UniProtKB/TrEMBL annotation:
Lineage: Bacteria, Pseudomonadati, Myxococcota, Polyangia, Polyangiales
Spans annotated as Disordered: 302-337
Record protein name field: Uncharacterized protein
Compositionally biased residues, Gly residues: 307-327
Bias (Pro residues) ranges: 328-337
Amino acid sequence: MFCAAFALAWERLRARFGPIHMDPQPALADALNAATLGAEVVDPAWSVSGAGFGGEGVVEALRAELFSKFPDAKPHYLPDAVPADALVAYGYLSKVLKFETRFAVREGTFKDSRVRAFGLDGNPFGADPARRSQVVVHDWAAPGDFVIELVADDPDSRVLVAQVAPAETLAATVAGALGRLDRLRGDARQLAADEPLVIPRLKLDLEERFRELEGRPLIGEELSGVRFDEAKQRVQFHLNEGGAGATAEAILGSYGPPPRSFWVTAPFLVLLQRRGASAPYLAAWVESTAWMEVLGPVPPPPPGWGPPTGFGAPPGFGAPPGFGAPPGFGPPPSGAA
């Protein structure tokens, strides 16, 4: 799956600071530095992107632009505010394409499954003639090898469906399909009355975390000491009898060191000691719930919930090596009050 929201965020980051380099440099960063999108790929009318430090007002500017273009937007990644030294790169796009005449709802097959689909219903006296006019056949080599376009309400955008053999990469597969556009001429570009059309409905909501970009120090005078705590993208997409639509959001965020946490969740030591004394008059090493009021098991977190990478106790943090309860200190013998 590729969506341009993350590339938009990176592009704005690169425009602000130049090519982004990390220590060590992941291959994904090199690929993003080499990528160019621009208005040719994503129309600024249905996208928002920006990058900068919190003190520059980047979040406020992004939120203002986002809600001016998309009043009903519900961003999940864009924070309300960030510290002045936080670095944020953000990308958002939303585009909905509708078919003037809805296709018929059908039952289709995909591999060995029956699936809900859309296409023509085979009724010559119904809406099929109008539906066929919304289909452009760019190339057809065999029943399992063709490239078609579904014409939507925006003449500036295309909905392409290509049943083709996959290449080694998604980029190569896309290039191969685009290279087959407009191969046919005349009547061959149109669906004949006896030619069937059945396409599976699609609906997805995917989130991807680009962990190879997280936690690595950035290189550069302005970026010294900065590392991304999060780098992620969420893509929502649908294709059905009424049209196609995509909404995507991406963020790269560096928020500085996490706040200190004093939530005792692991074995710990309790001491009672007179001020100035060299030893406590009570010491207890607690490593089980035997001395606690247990309320029940800890519920699992929601899917995808958790702090950004790098938040938490430093590696190796815990009880000092060899530390344990002093002789005679420990839970009372079984049955003791």
